[in-house]
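Hi there,

I know you've been waiting on this one. I reran it after we fixed the sequence typo, so this is the corrected version. Both the input and the resulting structure follow.
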Amino acid sequence: MVLDRALVLQMLHDAIGDDVDVFLVNLTVSDSVLPKLTVTLDGPLGLGIEECAKVSRRLARRIDEHYGEDAAYSLEVTSPGADQPLTDPRQYQRHIGRSLALKLADGTEKTGELLAATPEGVEIAEVIKVKTKKSILPAAFYTFGDIKEATVVISFK
């Protein structure tokens, strides 16, 4: 069985509906004997298992209605883990005040506190470590086009 990614994407948008607290981060559809759908969702305040389960049930119902209840596939609906890169501009807002590690398109890397997030980019107060001393540089703005990858620096303080 082959699942049409574009059709599944439309079904997924229908399953999410008008819920402004849930948005799609990623959808992968494998082309194997038993197709695997992996849906990664997020929200402005993060996402709990209840929201993932609700979207999963709605999506599975739509797939079953279209492909038939005997269709064989695997469905995983999840939220990004703490170690996953931020891939959608809407993910940054809830991380204000946390430390981010940025890999920029020009090859440089920056680490610092996320001070602000806009639809265009982020403002970071970069932390520079020299031996045992830390210095904080003045805030700098990076557009999302400048950012190749961004991850939250997990701290156990």
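Quick highlight: Residues 49-67 form the longest helix (19 residues).

Best,
R. S.
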